[in-house]
Each structure stands twice: as structure tokens, then as C-alpha cells.
Amino acid sequence: MSADLLQVLASAGKGKGTRSLLRVIILALIAGAAVSSRLFSVIRFESIIHEFDPWFNFRATKYLVANGFYKFWDWFDDRTWHPLGRVTGGTLYPGLMVTSGVIYHALRALTIPVDIRNICVLLAPGFSGLTAIAAYLLTNEMTPSSSAGLLAALFVGIAPGYISRSVAGSYDNEAIAIFLLVFTFYLWIKALKQGSMLWGALCALFYGYMVASWGGYAFITCLLPLHAFVLICMGRYSTRLYVAYTTWYALGTLASMQIPFVGFLPVKTSEHMPALGIFGFLQLLAFLDYVRSAIPSRQFQTFLWLFAGATFGLGLLGLVIATSAGFIAPWSGRFYSLWDTGYAKIHIPIIASVSEHQPTAWPAFFFDLNMLIWLFPVGVYLCFQELADEHVFIVVYALFGSYFAGVMVRLMLTLTPVVCVAAAIAVSTLLDAYLNAKSPNPEEVQALESSEGKRAVKSGLRSTSKPVVGVYGLWGKGMVVGAMVVYLLVFVLHCTWVTSNAYSSPSVVLASRLPDGSQHIIDDYREAYQWLRQNTREDAKIMSWWDYGYQIGGMADRPTLVDNNTWNNTHIATVGKAMSSREEVSYPIMRQHEVDYVLVVFGGLLGYSGDDINKFLWMVRIAEGIWPDEVSERAFFTPRGEYRVDAEATETMKNSLMYKMSYYNYNNLFPPGQAVDRMRGARLPEVGPTLNTLEEAFTSENWIIRIYKVKDLDNLGRDHASAAAFDRGHKKKKATKKRGPRLLRVE
Amino acid sequence: MRLLATVLSLVALLGAGPGGALAASAAAAGTKKSAEERFQLYHGKALSSAPIKLGDATYRELTAVPRDYAVAVLLTAMDSRYGCQLCREFQPEWGLLARSWTHGDKKGESRIVYATLDFTDGRDIFMSLGLQTAPVLYFFPPTVGPHAPASPEPIRYDFTGGAQAAEQVHSWIARHLPDRPHPPIRRPINWMRWIVTFVALSGGLTVSYVAWPYVLPVIQNRTVWAAVTLISILLFTSGHMFNHIRNVPYVAPDGRGGISYFAGGFQNQYGLETQIVAAMYGILALAGITLAIKVPRISDPKTQAVALFAWASVLFIVYSFLLSVFRRKNGGYPFSLPPFM
After folding, report:
1. What is the C-alpha to C-alpha distance for residues B222 and B235, in angstroms, rounded to an integer?
2. Do B42 and B171 reside in the same domain of the chain?
3. Of A305, A476, B216, B241, which is least packed with CB atoms within 10 Å of its CB?
4. Which of A159-168, A340-349, B108-117: highest mean pLDDT?
């Protein structure tokens, strides 16, 4: 009875037209779900740009929209990295800004008046819908099962690993780059399967777009040659591979060299060399293949393959020599630190200091992928079943993606698409096997076994040597399908919960709960930036740690010394030195850089963990890297090796500018001797620090942002310490007393 | 003039610290030689065996003021009784630095002497300097002459990062000796390693040539590759790289005499913990593979029913346990499945 019902239901989707229509509707719904699950922050807070880097992208987009493309291309920004400035047009990936600029002008042309800010805020959710469709296309290339693609689209749409970088307001390069990544891979598979130049050229086009958008393009640059290389090693060289690869490489490299920031890197640096090497190797193989077809001698063939192997080895040796001789730049630090995992901590503290460059602990994997994390190996195993060229790609991608994601939290993003594809293959295989209403007949199976049992299908995997029979009992099917539905439901709940709780905070605006459960918005950042915008000169230079550079540029519109584009380590170290030295040392540095205001973030009153005292050690470390004699990390630790801020803090710590600025006047908030830093749970000394060369200009409502004005030189030529002491009423003891009787002054 | 200098050094040494009698005798030895003579003497010694091994008296003589040369002294404790791991690790690097510097600068133009003082030879020096730990590397800048810095105080090298490579110490010393030649470090060619590599390589080639017919089926076996791939993926996704980079402990005591298998907090983990997690992922993946591929291929209905029930239950229970473990790591996590609620 129930089987009949199922069949009736199933036949509703039998017609080809109905199926395509259903598929389009489902895909549209998935894209809609992907977009809407990213809107938490817009609904809770407002349409606002998040975090740090997006503020720069937003500012650059505004510049592009206001001044046009060519001015944007040649943009020299004198309001950052004072006094050096930054050749912004030549040192950014313009893809993101140009994309939003195009959308903006297109909407204008359609007479839809829309604010550029709203385009920027909603760009990432919009592109996530496209990513879901790209994942659908990619998965359809992997398996004949049509449900796998839809599942992959769904997984990519709501997996937290991808949502983390693409919620509304997270206007960053990754917002469009993941779509381009997945779509480029789809085009590559398509080109490889068909050996088609057209698909190869399209692949190159989207690769070029990807290069224009995100530095992570190197992942594609390395993965495609690796895939080609593995195929060659498996003895699967074919003209399809030759056509697809050479088309992609030639056109893609040309396209990538059009970006000023990339320029000649594709022929000069090590991370691009595998692509070039495989390109050359393929030419050789193509030649040998041609010769082989012409001359059928067996010995000659062996000779040819040996020749190919030797050439490959020689090429590799040549590459090593050229690198050590300096013709080819060695691996850049960022890439090198992925292989030699201890490298960054020693040599490039500025990379190691960023929290998203830390290695990934296992809870982070589960947090970002939930059940996909254990379905992932299942899907990869299923790829081994058939192991066609495209399945090799999934295997290679899975291996390298999971390695990179394990080394760096941030690269979870590049792993997520392959996890979704593999998991979708696994789930669809399961559902296809257990959702089939037809049960096999035991007698037929016996007959089939006896006839086919002897000549077992020769497949690669041991587990698939027997023929598929099917599942007998309806209860068994119901059990597995029911459990799968439960897992999928938990997955959806998990994704929604993670997105809502972890990834939807703009970090510019903080939210907290009051005791009665109502939401309280902490808006100190914008309060302070607004104060800067309204109370300081247009060209007042603001010194802060580099994390806040983009925000100051974007929200307060004031020049900064350093910002999140960490191109000049020395300049950052200068700021670090000013922050970690005594006032007498810092003041000349600040004067030399024409600093007008200093901004620090202080979380002691509220218990806000992302403040400058917690980041302070990195400032010290980076400064120590440049001035090892003047700044020493050791001096900030007590003899017992503790990092303290209370009365037992070291003298260096107490005298550092950062400490003084953070705790200046802080004890006035509390009864005498009761001052407590709530973040670090430390009781502060009764007498707070004194500041001589700076004066407090502004402190936000919850003390998160404190702004100090750098004093001008003293009018009377005194040094600041004695001038400040005078102002506090500590008069200098005069050497001589006035003699004589007091006179009443009469005019 | 020379007399004045020696008198000055005598006064300085007498005032230097406790152990007066020894100081006096050392000073008495020091009175005989000028700074230049001392440098020539010790530089000559260093040429034959750098770094020089010092004792109490020679230490005081070498570091006596005034001196127009610099001294780098490593105070160490090599005897196994003291169990100084860092000393033993750093000793070869220090020897390498001292040798290559001294031999690169035979004429003594950089005017620096490398020396080592072991605790067993210089107990009193350690006491007078108030040293509790070893190794300690002191750099004594020259006190007179064109290169003398403003402060004659010896500078202490920071060993916080564990044993340092010779190159790092080299750059530290070079920084304190501006405007003078800095002979580079020459690491001797490790012949043994080359030979071992060569032998191993040729042995490996021979073995692979002989065993090739037997190895080839293994290399071409898809199941082997699938197993290798899956194991690596499980390792990476269960946080193995984190263990490798952060050197986390395998397990830790829980403070009540037992062992805690799971680290508290979202950003922490123990070695055993990741292995448990990897095992759980492995079981879940195995259950998934069996249900997807093997169970529909079982031709006997009864066997199939048993296998299906067994693997589906394993999947459900292990996933429930995984969720409960994750809940322990992440306090506010609201989802769970029976039986591990």
C-alpha cells in the first residue's frame, strides 16, 4: 500500500520537463536560503560594514564610484601610511570594488536608485547564492545522481565555514572569491572532460577574474597543475588534458598579468612555477605521444618514457638552481609558512600575530562543518569507486584543502566547497540506495549471483567487486532514511545557530544582554570615530595600532600612520616602538611623524577581550624585530614570567605609553584602591599613571576607545615633565626667597 | 701610565664583589700584563682551541678592566649532575661560532675573545655573579680604546627562546661590535651525513629495482590509495597539525589525581583528544561507507538486515557521543541526540 503511494508520488516527477522545473525551483529556493541566512546582522543591527578590511574595501569602492575607473587604477592614497602614502591602485585586488561599481552603475542605468553602501553590504550574500549554483554544477560533473548537485548547493549555501566570511556587511575579497573558485573549478572539469578549448578559455577568464579578486588565487594556480601532474603519473595523459591545460595556462597567465598588483609575478616567483613546469612538461609529453604513435617499437617507447622522466628531473633541478641563484624569487613568507609551520613565528611576527593565521583545533572544524566533517571522507572514498579524471581532482583537492585548513584557520574557507561536494555525493548515494521503493526479489538475486558470480566485475575497489543487489526490508530503509533526515535537520539547526551566534556580529557594534534579557548595544567605536570626524582637523594624523587603520580611514576619514594593509613592517614597528617605550622616547617619534592624536582600545572597564593591552605583546615583538636593543619583550614579563598589569607589573610595562594611555585616570572611576581591570581580573595600583606629553581628548561611553592629543612643544621651552608637574601644582622649590616687604600694587 | 692602569684594574677588581682573596690573587696575576698583552695571549690560545676554557683566575684576568678588546663568555654547566639540557644543546653551536669567528679573524682585527666557563671550574664566579641558572652568555664590551661604548657593563644574552642557532648569537654579537670585521659562520661539511644519504639512496634504489614487480601492484592498488587518503584527511581534520605546531601535551592531569582526556575551552586540545576524535570520525565514515556501498551488495536478506541495523546504530550512537563531546568543549551548544544527551 505504502509502496504504491510512494510510486504515485515518484511518478509525479518523472517527466523530463517537470524535473527540470523542479530543479530550477529548488535551486532558486536554496539560493534564497543562502542569502537570507546571512542577513542576521542587518536585521539585528543595521546595514553596516563589518570588521576591519571591509572598511577599506568600502572606502575604495566609494572612491571608484566617485572618480571613475581610470583614476581608481592610478590612485595614490596620501591619507594612509603617513608620511609615506600608499600606491593603492597598484597594491590591491580590484575585482571586488569593480564588481560592486558595475552593479551600482547597472542599477543606476535601470533607474533603481540605490546607495553604494547597501550594494557593498549585500554583495557577499548575493554571491553566496551564485556559489550554491556553482557547487550544483560542479557536483553534477562528478556523479550521475541528480540529487547530489542539489544537496551540494544546499550544503554550500548554509555551511558555517563559508558563512563566516560572507555574512551581510562582510564586504571582503572572499565574498566573491569563493564563487569564482568553485566556478573556475567547474569550468576546469568541464574543459578537461570535453578537451574543449572554449571551456578552457572560459576557465582562464574566470581564473583571471579570481586573480583580480583575491590573493588566494594561488590555490588554483597550484591545484590545477597538481591535478594534471597526478593524472600524468597515473598514466592518464590525453589530448583532452593537453588542450584544457595549455588553454587555461596560456590565457589565464596573460589575464592574471593584467592586474598591476600581480604583474610579472607569474613568471618570477616560486608559487607560480609548478604551473609553468607542468605546462612545459605537457608540451614534451605531447611530442612524445606523437612520436610514439608514429614509431611502434617497444624499446623505443621505454626510451622515450625514460627520456621524459629525465627531462622532468632536470627541469626540477634547474628550477632549484635558478631559485638559489636568485633568478626566481623563493616562496614568499606567507606561502612558505604553510609548509614550514614554525617559520612565521620566528621570521614574520606580523603574519603570526593575526588570529586567523593560527592553526585549527578540531572543535573549529566541527563548528564550521558539523556532520559534513565525517561525511567528507565517505564522499572521497566514493570518488575512488570510479576514479575518473574529475574524481582525481576531488581527491587531490580534498587532501591539500584539509592540510591547509589544518595549518591555518582562515583556509577553512577553501576547504568548505570540496567538503560540501564530497558530503553531497555521500548523502545522495545513501539516499539513492535507501529511498528506492522497489525491493529486490531474493530468487532473482540468487539467479543473478550464480550467473554473474564467477566473472565478478573488475573494479578498482575491493568493496565494490560484488554487484549491487538493493535493500530488502522497508523498515531498514525507513531506519536509515529517518536517521539521515534527523542528521540533516540537526545540521540545519546547527548552521543557523552558529551563524546567528558566532558569525553575525559586525564587531564595530557590540551587543550584550542586560540582566533582564533585553539587548544592549555598545556603540563605542562609531561614537569615537564620529568624534574624530567632527572635532579634529581634516588632516589630523591619528596614530593607532594597525588593526584600526582601515576603520579610522573609513569611518573617521582621517589620515593614519599604519593600517591593515601591512606592507611596511618597519613603519608598523615604529608605531609599536612608540607604544611600548617610555614617553620621553615616544614623544620625538610622534613629533617626527606629525601625530596629532593617539587612539587606543581599552577593554578593562567592560571586559572586552580584543583590546590593545591584549595585543600589546605583538606590538612589542614586532618592534623588537627592528630595534632589538631598545625594545625587549622580556622586560614586559615579571621575573616569574607573567604578563601582569597590576601593582606587580614590571617598570617597563608601567612606563610604556600603551599602559599609561590605557589606565590613565582609570582609578578615578572607583573608590580609592578599588580600581579593577575586569578583562584581566587585576587590581590596579592606587595611584594611576601620569601622562606628560599627551592629554586626554576623548573617552567613549564604555571606555573602549580612548583618544589622546599629542601636546605641542611647551611655550616656555620647558620639557614636558616639568611643565606637567607645574600644572599639577608641584611648584619648583625656588632657590632664593623674595626679600623685602610685600608691596601692594597700585596702578 | 701602565702602572696607573693596573692599579685601577686592581681597585676595580677588589671592589667587584665577594671572594676578595681570590680576586686579589687573580688581580696579582693580572698586574703583570697590559690589556694588549692579555689580548695577544688569549687570542693566541683561542687560535689553537676556541672557545678557551676558563677557570676562576683566568676569568678574572680576561675580563679585568681596562680592556681594549671585547670578551664573550658562556657560563655553562655541562656536567651531567646538573642536568642542564639547554647547556648541552647550545654547546656545539657555541663552539662552532667561536671557532669559525676566531679562524676567520686570525689577526685579531675584530678584537674579541670567545671563552667558556664551566660551573665545575668557576663555582666562585657563578656565586659572585649571583647566577642561579645556566647557560648565561655575557658580552663584555671594551672599556677603553676607540670602540668602547658609553656603558662598560657586560650585556647578557637572552636565552628565552630555547637553544639558539649559532647564526642568531652571531648577529647579536655582530651588533655589539660595529665597524669591525664579522667573520661569517662556517658550518663544517657533514661528511657522515652525505655518506649515509648516498648509501641509503643507492640502497633504496636497488631495493626498489629488485622489489618493483612486488611493489607495483601495491602502488597501483586503488584500495591502498583510498586508505592513505582517508587516513590523511582524518588526521588533518581532527586537528593533528595544531598538535604539531603548538606541541600540546598528550594528556593532562585534571587536578583530582585522575587524567583529563579533553582540554577545556574551544581553542585547546590534547594529543589523545584528537586521536579519540579522529577515531570517532573514522568510525562514522566507515559506517557511512558500509551503509552506502556494502550493505546494498549483500545478497542474503538476513545478513543484510543484521548489517544494516548494526551499522546504522553505530552511526547514531557515535554521532550522539561526538555531539556530547563537542558540547563539553563549547559550553553553550544546544543540540544533542540520544543516548548521550
Report:
1. 20
2. yes
3. B216
4. A159-168
Contact at CB, B269 and A373, closer than 8 angstroms: no
Q: Which of B123, B156, B176 is the last residue of a domain?
A: B176
ipTM of the complex: 0.83
Question: Is-contact A383 A422, C-beta < 8 A?
Answer: yes
Which residues in A658-743 belong to E strands, given as ranges? 676-677, 682-683, 694-699, 705-710
Give the DSSP H or E segment for A583. helix A583-592
**Are residue B153 and residue B267 in the same domain, yes or no?**
no
The domain containing residue B263 runs over which residues? 221-329
Residue B79 lies in a domain: yes
The pLDDT value given to residue A688 = 84
Let me know whether B106 and B39 are in one domain.
yes
- Same domain assignment for residues B163 and B288: no
Q: Are residues B79 and B161 in the same domain?
A: yes
What's the grid cell of residue B140?
663584555
Q: Measure the CA–CA gap between B139 and A73, rounded to whole angstroms.
A: 53
Per-residue pLDDT at A333:
62
CB within 8 Å: B277 and A442: no
Q: In this structure, what are the phi and psi dihedrals at residue A452, rounded to the nearest 5 degrees?
A: -100, -10
Q: Which residues contact B211 (CB under 8 A, 6 or more apart)?
A: none
Residues B245 and B166 in one domain: no
| CA–CA distance, B233 with B282 (Å, rounded to integer) | 10
Q: Which residues of A touch B291 (CB under 8 A)?
A: 430, 433-434, 480
CA dihedral A717, A718, A720, A726 (to 10 degrees): -130
Task: Identify the domain boundary among B116, B147, B176.
Answer: B176
Q: Give the minimum alpha-carbon distance from B78 to chain A in angstroms, rounded to a whole number.
A: 25
What pLDDT, on the 0 to 100 scale, is given for residue B12?
A: 44
B9 falls within a domain: no
**Can you give the CATH number for the domain in which B115 is found?**
3.40.30.10
Tell me yes or no: is domain A521-727 CATH 3.40.50.12610: yes
- Quick one: which H or E segment has residue A8? helix A2-12
Question: Quick one: B158 and B290 in the same domain?
Answer: no
A476 contacts B309? CB cut-off 8 A: yes
Q: What is the rounded distance in angstroms from the CA atom of residue A684 to the CA atom of residue A649?
A: 10
Q: Where do the domains of chain A lie?
A: 521-727
Report the residue of chain A nearest B267, measured CA to CA. A361
Nearest to B338 by CA among B29, B324, B329, B197: B324
Q: HSE (CB half, 13 Å, CA atoms) of B62?
A: 29
B293 in contact with A, Cβ within 8 Å = yes
Inter-chain touch B292–A487, beta carbons under 8 Å: no
Q: Does some domain include residue B89?
A: yes
Q: Residue A102, by phi and psi: left (phi above 0), alpha (psi -120 to 50) or beta?
A: alpha
CB B72 within 8 A of CB B137: yes
pLDDT digits (tens, 9 = 90+) for A608-659: 888 899 889 889 988 988 888 888 888 888 888 788 888 888 888 989 999 9
**Same structural domain, B243 and B305:** yes
B288 lies in some domain:
yes
Which has the closest alpha carbon to A81: A620, A569, A517, A601? A569
Q: Do A405 and B237 touch (CB under 8 A)?
A: yes
Specify the pairing of strand B136-140 against strand B252-253. Answer: unpaired
CA A79 to chain centre: 25
In the A/B pair of chains, how many CB contacts fall below 8 A? 188
Q: How far is CA A527 from the centre of its chain?
A: 28
pLDDT digit string (tens) for B213-259?
A: 888 888 888 889 999 999 999 999 998 888 888 888 888 887 777 88
A18-23, Cβ contacts within 8 angstroms, sequence gap of 24 or more: A19/A146, A23/A146, A23/A150
Structurally, chain B folds into a number of domains equal to 2
Question: Which residues, including other chains, have CB under 8 Å from residue A421's CB and lie 6 or more apart?
Answer: A135, A138, A139, A142, A152, A379, A394
Per-residue pLDDT at B18 exceeds 70: no
